[in-house]
Amino acid sequence: MDFGAFFFLATLEGLVQAAVLSLTALGLSLVFGVMRVVNVAHGQFFMLGAFLAWWITNMIANQPVLGFLAALLIAPLLVGGIAFLGERLVLKPLNYGPQSTIVATIGFLYIIQEVALILFGPDPRPVEPPFQFDVEFPWFGYSGYKLFVICTAALLLCATWFVMRSMRIGLAMRATQFDSETAQNFGIPVGRVYAQVFAIGAMLAAVAAVLIVPIQQAHYLMGLDALLLSFIAVIVGGLGSIQGTVVAAILIGLSGGILSVFFSPTLAKIVATLFVALVLVFKPEGLFGGKAR
User: Fold this and answer.
1) Nearest-CA neighbor of 210 among 80, 116, 71?
2) Does pLDDT of 75 surpass 80?
3) Where are the alpha helices (DSSP H) in the chain?
4) Dihedral pair phi/psi, residue 38, rounded to 5°
5) Based on the number of CB atoms within 10 Å of its own CB, is 208 exposed (0-12), middle (13-18) or buried (19 or more)?
6) At what angle do helices 42-59 and 190-212 cross, to 10 degrees?
């Protein structure tokens, strides 16, 4: 395989990583942008989505397509429900204070991780892809499922953008993000918006996990990498900037996939961390973040 074909393969692998990271980081960015809450447990919602996908697909093991579609629908709803209850029962009574919510979400992190370890064990849990075929390019055949992941993530990102721009819930979220007190005065139920945003953020992470688990097996520690890379994307893109987060996630995912194919995954993480350091030094507000007044 010549360099051009090899680079094209690495780019496709990078797009798969970028697709999953974009959804995961978008959920984290929404929670911080609207609620000003640093959700340290975000990666555990990702991990929980992966295990629920494994559990659901195993319940419908004789029909992989139906099992996967059921997981894609049910797992995010269950994860979103858990996040909604956590927000109502823990974060709301804390009045969303920065320090207290960080401590609370750290508690979520360890609770979800230990419960997953008890219920599912320490061994990786594989999920069979819903379909297995290759799309033939001039140089090689490439997994049709991975292309499906890229396309599905792109559609979900577009759908999220449409909801944020055109639907009532999206307008309420944007108003709350801009000024929660003014939004409250205009009759927007800010507390309900916070609960919905926290649940939606967790659901986006769970959807990303369902998409990636046929490629990367479910494991009780998989949320840590998802959390780290999502934080990197949010910081690089600009805190609270949804557009910046998605662009940063695509750049990080692409570069990580290309470096992983040509060199090693460890080098990809080192480069991503150095990129964050450079952004913080030369543009502390992030690539798309507004300057503090």
Assistant:
1) 71
2) yes
3) 3-35, 42-59, 64-86, 98-120, 144-166, 168-178, 180-185, 190-212, 222-237, 242-262, 265-282
4) -85, 105
5) buried
6) 60
The CA-based angle 64-76-130, given to 5 degrees, is 15
Q: Which residues, listed in sequence order, are joined to residue 143 by a DSSP beta bridge?
A: 134
Extract the tokens encoding 85: 């209850």
Q: Which two tokens stand for residue 182?
A: 């003014």
In a domain, 229, yes or no: no
Domain assignment of residue 56, given as a range? 14-222
CB atoms within 10 A of CB 191: 15
Nearest alpha-carbon partner for 115 in 84, 90, 89, 79: 79
Domain count, the chain: 1
Q: Is residue 167 part of a domain?
A: yes
In a domain, 211, yes or no: yes
16-53 pLDDT, tens per residue?
A: 999 999 999 999 999 998 888 899 999 999 999 999 99
Whole-angstrom distance, CA of residue 154 vs CA of residue 150 = 6
Q: What is the CA 48 to chain-centroid distance, rounded?
A: 12
Q: What pLDDT does 275 receive? A: 79
| Structural domain includes residue 195 | yes
